Amino acid sequence: MIRTLVKWLILLALIASAVVLTVWAGQQADAALCKGVEVEVVGGDPRSVSTTQRGVYNEVLRFDSHLLRKRASSINTLALQTHLSRISNFESVHCMMTSKGKLRITVVPMIPELRVFDGDDSYYVNKDGKRIKADARFYADVPVARGHFTDRFPATSILPVVRFVRSDSALRNIVAMFEAHSPSDIMLIPRIAGHVVNFGDTLDLDRKRRALMAFYRKVMPYKGWETYDTVSVKFRGQIVASRRDKGLPQHSGVAEEEVDLEEAALAAHAAPEAESQPRTDAETN
């Protein structure tokens, strides 16, 4: 009987100790200050993870500059989550306090495909056409397009050309940016200053690429890179080039000319042979 009573007393003492320890630990936890902020970026461009983390951290301090000096238990994670979710750069945001007293923020970034400059306005768009604010804190390295876009001619309408260029190693190294004048006049702006390429609409892109690369191989080395200001491959079966100096005499009397690639190639091969021929006295005088 006495032995049973002792056992019960010991059990009650252990329970009481556990309760006391739990209460004490809870009080300590309530009194503990926030031990820092952890930002986890899920998905998106790996090259922009550190930029996104810094941007989120700075936005947290903008929301509450005293957050790191507050008790962890007093931080309103739901209010912070709601605030961060209003930023258009994120698909989703989740905030929580860890058992170690740190504020953990998990963000899934909105993935932009294009940076748009439309007059004084600048923004990103994703594959679905959703606008993303061009915020320096969440910079993304994506292709750049310039133009006036509307509901009938949205920026996403040129994405087939943008994706085609990005998927092609040769074009990707040539093209610096895009410029959209209309749905049928999408321009490629090469890194080589001096001319632009009218790629037309978003159809028949392989054919246009072949025409452009043939023009670069067969015509430009012969004519010179400063001869034309615009090269158009938008029309099937022809390449139309606009001369830079409109004041130069033209055989056709117009500033534009249709370029025959085979003729240009033959002329390029014939030119060195003609120069190597000795000049007669009549030619000299």
Q: How is this structure best described in words?
A:
The protein is α/β, with parallel strands linked by helices. Helix content is 38%, strand content 25%. Strand 8 and strand 9 (185-190) form a beta hairpin. The longest helix has 30 residues, at 2-31. It starts with a helix and ends with a helix. The relative contact order is 0.07.
Radius of gyration: 33 Å
H and E string: HEHHEEEEEEHHEEEHHEEEHH
Structural class: alpha/beta
Q: What is the total tally of β strands?
A: 13
| Tally of DSSP helical segments | 9
- The average pLDDT score comes to 81
Shape: elongated
Which regions contain 5 or more consecutive residues with pLDDT less than 50?
A: 250-254, 271-285
Largest sheet: 10 strands, mixed
- The rounded distance between the terminal residues' Cα atoms is 138 Å
Helix percentage: 25-40%
Tell me what portion of residues adopts beta-strand conformation. Answer: 15-25%
Query: Order of strands side by side in the largest beta sheet?
Result: 6-5-4-7-8-9-10-11-12-13
